[in-house]
Design a protein that fits this description.
CATH class: Mainly Alpha
Strand order of the largest sheet: 1-2
Distance between the termini: 24 Å
Shape: globular
Number of strands: 4
Number of helices: 5
Helix content: 40-55%
Radius of gyration: 13 Å
CATH architecture: Orthogonal Bundle
Largest sheet: 2 strands, parallel
Strand content: 5-15%
CATH superfamily: Winged helix-like DNA-binding domain superfamily/Winged helix DNA-binding domain
Length: 106
DNA sequence: CTGGTGACCGCTT
DNA sequence: AAAGCGGCCACCA
């Protein structure tokens, strides 16, 4: 599988996101290898080949706001799922100050 | 086959 | 300090 090596890493990183935490596209991209892949991360999640194994709803932009193109039944659905995990929201955006996945880069 | 886009972010000036 | 631009991957027309 020479094609999709980056995608595989992105999916792997997203799967490593713990329960009750959220990660940003840039952070996932950075953990995947390069920060510039943030855009690729968005596309990778857009494909979302395994929504059950890849909690793309735990991935939000740096602003802490969910993507407007969320396709899980509505943008609200993602917020509801995150709230169900205990993630706090401030004025409609995630409290990145305390719920951002604090993971250090290898 | 080529061009352009997309759920984004960091860096440079 | 603020604003603007580019960049990487894969898929569609």
């Amino acid at each position: 599988m020479a094609d999709g090596e980056v995608f595989s890493k992105i999916y792997d990183v997203v799967r490593q996101i713990p329960y009750g935490k959220v990660a940003t596209y840039g952070q996932v991209a950075e953990l995947a290898g390069n920060k510039r892949w943030a855009r690729v991360v968005g596309y990778a999640l857009h494909l979302n080949p395994d929504p059950e194994g890849i909690p793309c709803y735990r991935v939000v932009n740096k602003a802490g706001n969910a993507s407007s193109a969320f396709a899980f039944g509505g943008i609200n659905r993602q917020i509801e799922l995150l709230k169900a995990e205990g993630v706090q929201f401030i004025d409609g955006h995630v409290d990145m100050e305390h719920f951002r996945w604090n993971r250090h880069i290898f």
